[in-house]
Amino acid sequence: MIIKDAVCPFCGCLCDDIEVTVDDGKIVAVDNACTLGNHKFLGDHRLPGPIRRDGDTWKDIRYDEAVEYAVDMLLEADRPLLYGWSGTHGEAQCVGVHMAELLRGVIDNTSSVCHGPSILAIQEVGHPGCTLGQVKNRADLLIYWGCNPIDAHPRHLSRYTRYADGFFLENAFRDRKVIVVDVRKTETTNLADEFVQIQPGADYAVLSALRAIARGKGDALPRTVGGVPREQLVRIVDLCKKAKFGAVYFGLGLTMTRGKYKNIRNAIELVDELSRHTKFTISAMRGHYNVYGSNEVNTWMTGYPFGIDFSRGIAFYNPGETTAVDILARKECDACLIVASDPGAHFPRACIKHLADIPVVQIDPYANATTAFCDVQIPVAVTGIDAEGTAYRMDGVPIRTRKVLSTGYPSDEEILGRIYARIQEVRQP
User: What is the pLDDT of residues 133-161, one digit of tens each?
Assistant: First the structure.
């Protein structure tokens, strides 16, 4: 059986033109997906059932036992942390927010360690963004800043930018210009019309220089800014002003370098300046396929996008205080539920050490670095493969992912719903 127009649940592109061939209850072929998406659809190393740590080994347990362990752990905790959420669908994220509120715990998603600073900047100065469809059909100038889509979002260029046809472009491949700004050469720089190599940590200075040139103050600049010759900066601004529609995409190379959210604010204000001359937009290259959705769901339900603390009985948000890394580094939380993410692979050592000292339950289909220190792991269905649900593309467009085969695994929403129902029985009898 061939299933057309399936949605790839890997990165924020959420490519919705995937063809999946299912034979004898297994996916045997995938068309149109990139290498990363292909690997996700064909991945076959799932845990067969829940496991619980038993000394230095693991023992198999039933789903009911795993759910009861998670319920007891969360009810006994004074300050539980519910972390992850970017690799699951919106319906499961809703259950997570309800659960955090009932437990008076903290719920945080992976954006606090990736594009959280981008959100802070947007809260200050707004977001002059647009959909990927607008970029595909109109943009004749693309700027990739601090990101490498060839490796991280392989189909971004073929579906929406460099290699995509555009409705309002006569010859999109010839008419589009691509500028890449990065601290080193990457696969993406090889296809750029202009590569701007800046010194590490100099993003803010280079953005400020571009803003000055756009305002006609270029003569006040030194000969080089952040390792970039003034002449090249002037050339970049000229290209931007001559474009009919420009789009900036930025990654963690801008968000998580020195300056953090101030870099993003400066980039947004550069776009604002350029929009006085032509049309320009700016958007983040979101990584997890539904990290944008976790920000959306949290904001609908609490007013805040990540790092939400319910310990006061109301939603409270203060990045740097209520975000997962900070809570773990201060050894505040005494239990952790991890859903659809792998902090063991990304968090600082001090946070991992504290996670190893407290009870941890992980809900994830695969064994990963977090498995090494969790007490119980509950395997679930993969959204977009054997579960369906709503996810948000990196441009904020909600897309319904499809279930392409049945495996018998429960979904994230089902497991979380069972845990939440049991907690309700105790806390709201």
Answer: 999 999 999 999 999 999 999 999 999 99
Domain(s) of CATH 3.40.228.10: residues in the chain? 115-284
| pLDDT at residue 429 tops 90 | no
CATH 3.40.50.740 in the chain: give the residue spans.
Answer: 47-112+289-427
Domain 47-112+289-427 has CATH 3.40.640.10: no
For the stretch 69-119, pLDDT in tens is 999 999 999 999 999 999 999 999 999 999 999 999 999 999 999 999 999
pLDDT at 428: 80
Class of domain 115-284: alpha beta
pLDDT at residue number 44: 78
Mean pLDDT is lowest, of 173-177, 271-275, 341-345, for 173-177
Strand order in the sheet with 141-145: 194-197, 177-182, 141-145, 245-250, 279-284
Strand partners of residue 52: 59, 376
